[in-house]
Amino acid sequence: MTTLPLVIRPETPRDNDAIERLHERAFGPGRYARTAFRLREGVPHLADLSFTALVGTLLVGSVRVSPARAGSSPLLVLGPLTVDPAFGSRGIGGALMRASLDAARTGGHGLVILVGDAPYYARFGFRVLPPRQLTLPGPVDPGRFLGLELREGALAEAGGNVVGGGR
Known about the structure:
Blueprint: E1 6-10, H1 16-27, H2 35-40, E2 51-55, E3 58-70, E4 73-83, H3 92-106, E5 111-115, H4 118-122, E6 127-128, E7 134-135, E8 145-149, H5 154-157, E9 160-164
Parallel strand pairs: 4-5, 7-9
Antiparallel strand pairs: 1-2, 2-3, 3-4, 3-9, 5-8, 6-8
């Protein structure tokens, strides 16, 4: 098997169309109804925490991070994390996650939340959030509502309804 020349780099505005096509292929039209999408709707993602994966000139993966608040506490919403299905199981998602989380730590952020597969995200330190501490703007399986403290005590400071924006 040939090793792919993978490049992880910060997202740029000219990546947007390719990322939208990637989201369409990976998630389909149902993505707009999901609670995580509704939380990010109308909220620009943070360019300094959002990354792309390229093989040559082909964009094969993306991770975006958006600002949010729970009460008076700022937090980050990670997602979507997307890898082109043709390039799955090659470590691209993990490389994107590490780049984004490292940038968030360096930037002094305290808490990252997401809705996703707990066994996958556990390797990055994400854990199921305590019941009813944070509330999303729609239904979510409590076992898929995950958080990662980048700063000790950040989760204890956050509580209530999570709303997009607020940076």
